[in-house]
Amino acid sequence: MKKRDNVKTVVRNRRARHDYIIEEVIEAGIALIGTEVKSLRAGRASLQDAYAQVVDGEVFLKNAHIDQYEPAARFNHDPLRPRRLLLHKREIRKLASRVAQRGYTLVPLSIYFRDGKAKVELALARGKKSYDKREAIRERDLEREARRAVRQRDY
User: Fold this and answer.
1) d(Cα 9, Cα 89) in Å, to the nearest integer?
2) Which of 16, 47, 135, 137 is the most buried (most CB within 10 A)?
3) In sequence order, which ranges of 20-71 are alpha helices (DSSP H)?
4) Each residue of 18-56: b (16+ CB within 10 Å) or e?
């Protein structure tokens, strides 16, 4: 876990910034049960293939995998269960209207603890085309080469 100013990052969705154009980022709380919290604190989660969906005025995090907490035995949770995200009604309405537009989706960027409470960094995003991804990779490689050249010149 990475710690910054009373924030402990549990898991990041690294593919999200590569696969999507991030339009807006919003923080949401997560409704969890006890064994999920313990498993998150142990850093045992994955956001690969996870997404958020607005259903009947509520937002749910789907396909987010939080491992079972081994000491809990039979009292464990379902690792892939949909988890309710805690947002204000006006935020939910705004997200629902944007997601209704073609091409927009809600993607979780990270799960972290802020002041002891589990939070999700949720992004309103549009999918990138393959040529956009290639361009991003090309720009990143050029930037890396430029930094390397500057470093070589300084010695």
Assistant:
1) 26
2) 47
3) 34-41
4) eebeeeeebebebebbebbbbbbeeebbebeebbbbbee
Three-class SS of residue 78? coil
The string of pLDDT tens digits covering residues 55-112 is 888 999 999 888 887 787 777 777 788 999 999 999 999 988 888 888 788 999 999 9
Alpha helix (H) residue ranges in the chain: 14-19, 34-41, 89-100, 130-154
CATH topology of domain 2-128: Small Protein B; Chain: A; (2.40.280)
User: What are the tens digits of pLDDT across the range 13-41?
Assistant: 888 887 888 888 999 999 888 888 888 88
CA 16 → CA 19, 108, 111, 123, distances in Å? 5, 8, 13, 9
pLDDT in tens, 42-60: 888 888 888 898 988 899 9
What's 75's DSSP letter? G
Domain coordinates of the chain in residue numbers?
2-128
